[in-house]
Structure formats: structure tokens, C-alpha cells
Amino acid sequence: VKLPKIGKVKVVIHRVPNADWIIKSATISQDSDGKYYVSVLFEYDETASTYVADTTNVIGLDYASDGLYVDSDGNKGSNHKYYRDGHKKLAKAQRKLSKMQGSRKGETKSNNWYKQLRKVNKIHKHIANQRLDNLHKISTKIANSVDVVCVENLNMRAISNKGFGNGKATLDNGYGLFLNMLEYKLADRNKYLVKVDKWFPSTKLCNVCGYHNNDNGTYFFKPSISSADMSNTSQSFAKVSSLGNFLVVLYCVIISGETPTCFAISTVVSPLYFISLLNLSLILSIILFSNTYY
Questions:
Q1: pLDDT at 171
Q2: Which of 36, 84, 250, 254 is positioned for an S-S bond with 234, CB 3.0–4.6 A?
Q3: What does the DSSP 8-state code read for residue 59?
Q4: Average model confidence (pLDDT) across the chain
Q5: 161-193 burial, b for 16+ CB within 10 Å, e for fewer?
Q6: According to the model, what pLDDT value does residue 240 have?
Q7: β-pairing, 261-267 with 36-43?
Q8: How far apart are alpha carbons 133 and 171 in whole angstroms?
């Protein structure tokens, strides 16, 4: 790259431009790890994409703290915790930095302090680059294989607050950045990203028969149903944790070729030591009853 007043500088080119692209500007920046980056702006004629999205090729993604997301087919995203992996190395470098001249307030920072600070920043940059690379690969794979992606519009800053106690794991996932990548990559391919409102009662809708439970405090567990399970009998349970009812089991049964039916069983238990026994007895009785009846 040839820069004004500097001349030719050796660079690692991320993407080779075409011959007909016109250079408009270049921005040089220095990152915290001491490396310089140049961002070149080009002007070129872009051909409009004629691809028509297939609205039946749909997938739903739900946020998961231990795997980035869980899709509607039951597949999990990457479970890499890059900050956790590099935490020991980062802590060691930061401890070394804290003992050098300049770490205390009002002290003159020494050259060794600046050198160690650059090492700490390099570790931070390495962790961020690992996360970016992983998110780019996953988002590109989804954007190439699916035409419509449905996600929940979550407030990741609120989820990562101190009250939940999992802020480090939430921020290490980079789920918000992952959704931003999906949004522009799907838009470039004439595909769609549908953001479902966070107050939409998805946990109150049965994933098997579509039954909507209006009882406050009742939530469905929505396991993925495979085609093999659908051919025989599919079961999904819902659990309630409310002050009045200690246990509500919602049992949905689908019989192949027949209309799905849902029925609820509610039990109020006062002594806490009876909860586990009643849970087991109710589930066993439901299973035995369904097998005998059908």
C-alpha cells in the first residue's frame, strides 16, 4: 500500500480488490496491541441479486448460555469459551503488570510497564479474534444453508447483569454480535432474519400441538421432535413453579394420523418433602395410563 508522505508499506491484504474498483479513501488506525491497520474504501458497481428466498426453509434459534444457541432441530452452536480458555494466561500477565512502576496512581509509567501493557492487550486481542472467527464461520454457514432465520429479540446487556451471576459467560458467547452478523449476511443474500419480540409467549405454546396455556407461571419444555418420534408417539412435558401449585405437569400426546390432544394435571402439595415423591408417582401414572388407553 502506498501512503502519502510515507511511501510504500508492506501489508497483509485481507481481500484483493478487482481491477475496476475505484479507490476513494484510506483510514489508518492503531489498535491497543500496537498493530496498525489500514481500511481502504472502494467504489464499484454492484449487480443486484436475483435470488428468491424459500420461505419453507426456516430455522429457529434460541439463545443458550452453554452453546451460543439451540436451533429448532435440536442442534447446538459452538460451545467455545475463549475468554475462559485464556483466563489464566491473561491473569498472569495482568499480575505482572500490576507490580511494575506506573501501575499505582500518580506514578510515572516506565518503559517496562508499557511493554507489559502491550502484552496484555495482545492477549485480549487474540481472544477477541478467536471469538470473531468462530462467529463468522457459524453465521456464514447458517446464512448459506437457511433462507429464513427466526430469533428472539433479547436484551443481552440485561441478561449479563450482576444479578444473574452469568455475565462473563454471556458476554463470552458474543450472541448479540452473532445476530448482527446474521442480519447483514442474510440481507446480502436476499434472505430474511425475523426477530420475535421478547414478550411473545413462546414458552406457553406447545411445540407439538400449538396449545396456548393462559395460566400464569406455566411454561412448556419444548424438546425438538424428530421425524422418527413423530411417526409413533411424541411426548412433551411442561412444568409450573408458582406459589399456589408446586407441580403442574402438562402432558401432550400425538398419535400418528390422529389429532393431537393436551390435558393438564395440577396438584397442590403443602409439605416440601412430598414434592419429589408426587412428581415421580404422577409422571409414572400418566405414562401407564397413556400406554394402557392407547
A1: 86
A2: 254
A3: E
A4: 75
A5: eeeeebeeebbbbbbbebbebbbebbeeeebbb
A6: 27
A7: unpaired
A8: 16
DSSP string, 150-218: EEE---HHHHTSTTTS-HHHHHHHTHHHHHHHHHHHHHHTT-EEEEE-TTS-GGGB-TTT-PBP-STTE
CB 168 within 8 A of CB 83: yes
Lowest mean pLDDT among 202-211, 212-221, 238-247: 238-247
DSSP letter at 149 equals E
C-alpha to C-alpha distance for 106 and 91, rounded to whole angstroms:
23
In sequence order, what E strands does 4-114 have? 7-8, 22-30, 36-43, 58-64, 68-71
* Helices of type H across 32-146: 82-85, 87-98, 111-145
Arithmetic mean of pLDDT, 164-180: 86
> pLDDT per residue over 55-113, tens digit each?
889 999 988 888 888 888 888 888 788 998 999 999 999 999 999 998 888 889 999 99
Query: What pTM did the predictor assign?
Result: 0.67
Give backbone dihedrals phi and psi of 109, rounded to 5 degrees, phi first.
-75, 130
Note the pLDDT of residue 294: 46
- In one-letter notation, the amino acid at residue 288 is L
Which residue type, as a one-letter code, is found at position 124? H
**Chain CA centroid to CA 277, Å:** 36
